[in-house]
């Protein structure tokens, strides 16, 4: 008789500040492994957008938590695009709208509210499905998936992250200023790292990778080396 396994699908947690390259690393790992993706930052961005659509006040924590608890969102996989998904909110395609710097700022404001974070916990855990999950965020390894098989904390200096974000947004045709982006990244880092709940910090068992002076290819290789060493024996057939 085949013994029923109670093992949960494995999780690879990729945490770190914005602009460190988590999105690209997550996408690449998902392509290599066939695992699902959780873009947890998108859930906070979507909450911020829904709060604006419903004209809920940004100081109304209970109201914002109710919006988060009832988010009508879908992540629809697309191929051949820089982003792995089309993201919809209430049936409307908001893929580009949630990627603006302003949407990131709104996200970090709602993400600092404890009731909002708890509203989104179960939704995030539901992304854990076979054959496995690559979870991208700030608290994947410290709060949401504390039992993740691999925890990576990907970081880079604020200046380098601002430059990368500047190029990304320019390429999308958005009109942005490098100085303003750097200031916004510093503000966001400070808000994410000093909030009372789930502050941005590496899990004790995370492996830290500083991507400041690495090419994207080198980052992918460094991450893959960690994943291969720590997770391959748990997932026999995912390469
Ligand atoms: O990763 P991204 O830049 O899309 O995240 C937007 C904001 O959402 C972050 O600055 C952070 O404040 C918040 N966030 C969070 N916890 C996560 C993911 C994102 O607090 N797991």
Q: Would you give an account of this structure?
A:
The chain is an alpha/beta fold. It has one domain (10-227): Rossmann fold, CATH 3.40.50. The protein contains nine helices and eight strands. The chain has helices at 22-33, 40-53, 61-69, 101-111, 114-125, 140-144, 158-171, 178-194, 216-231; strands at 10-15, 36-39, 73-77, 85-89, 92-93, 132-137, 150-155, 207-210. The strands form two sheets. Strands 2-6-1-7-8 form a five-stranded parallel sheet. A three-stranded antiparallel sheet has the order 3-4-5, covered by helices on one side. The radius of gyration is 17 Å and the shape is globular. The two termini are 28 Å apart. The model has no long low-confidence stretch (mean pLDDT 91). The site of cytidine-5'-monophosphate has 14 residues, from α2, α4 and α8.
């Amino acid at each position: 008789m085949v013994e029923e396994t109670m093992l949960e699908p494995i999780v690879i947690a990729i945490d770190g500040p914005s602009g460190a390259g988590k999105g690209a690393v997550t996408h690449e790992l998902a392509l290599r492994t066939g695992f699902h993706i959780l873009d947890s930052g998108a859930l906070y961005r979507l909450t911020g957008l829904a709060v604006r659509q419903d004209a809920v006040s940004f100081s109304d924590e209970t109201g914002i938590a109710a919006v988060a608890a009832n988010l009508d969102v879908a992540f629809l996989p697309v191929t051949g695009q820089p982003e792995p998904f089309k993201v919809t909110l209430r049936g409307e395609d908001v893929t580009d709208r949630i990627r603006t710097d302003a949407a990131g700022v709104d996200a970090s404001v709602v993400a600092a509210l404890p009731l909002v974070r708890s509203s989104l916990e179960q939704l995030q855990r539901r992304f854990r499905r076979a054959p496995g999950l690559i979870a991208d965020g700030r608290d994947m390894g410290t709060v949401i998936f504390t039992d993740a098989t691999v925890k990576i904390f990907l970081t880079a200096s604020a200046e380098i992250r601002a430059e990368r974000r500047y190029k990304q947004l320019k390429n999308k045709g958005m009109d942005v200023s490098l100085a303003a982006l750097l200031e916004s990244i510093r503000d966001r880092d400070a808000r994410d790292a000093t909030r009372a709940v789930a502050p941005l910090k590496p899990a004790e068992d995370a492996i830290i990778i500083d991507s400041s002076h690495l090419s994207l290819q080198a980052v992918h290789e460094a991450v893959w080396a960690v994943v291969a060493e720590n997770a391959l024996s748990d997932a026999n057939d995912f390469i």
